[in-house]
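FORM 12-B: Structure-to-Sequence Request
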């Protein structure tokens, strides 16, 4: 058996917007937290204010509903304020706890002779004076 919501969706897809809107309002009277019904209502209603309200209700139910957010922008309703991003630090925090003795105690890494005694840079870039690099 087809649910009232599915009947409303079928009517909307068939272009029968007024009949679909009537059924969607009945669904929402019984299920005011039905995000899908609010989205479909926003699609079928001809009243811009009703569209905006339906989209706001869908966003209230699901704040991550990007389709509802874009719909509100399209129909002139401002979506609810998203949480602001944390402020970006203008300067990095100061280094206050660093062991400089560790750096001085670490032995330097010495470069090894390339395999076969050939200078890799000279081999890759003929004409380059590897000693000048």
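FORM 12-B RESPONSE
SEQUENCE OUT:
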């Amino acid at each position: 058996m087809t649910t009232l919501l599915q009947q409303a969706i079928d009517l909307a897809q068939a272009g029968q917007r007024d009949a679909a809107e009537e059924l969607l309002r009945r669904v929402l009277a019984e299920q005011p937290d039905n995000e899908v019904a609010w989205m479909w209502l926003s699609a079928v209603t001809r009243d811009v204010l009703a569209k905006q309200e339906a989209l706001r209700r869908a966003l209230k139910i699901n704040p991550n509903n990007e389709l509802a957010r874009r719909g509100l922008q399209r129909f002139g309703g401002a979506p609810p304020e998203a949480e602001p991003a944390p402020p970006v630090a203008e300067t990095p925090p100061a280094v206050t706890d660093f062991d400089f003795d560790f750096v001085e105690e670490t032995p330097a890494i010495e470069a090894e002779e390339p395999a076969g005694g050939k200078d890799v840079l000279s081999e890759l870039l003929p004409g380059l004076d590897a000693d000048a690099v």
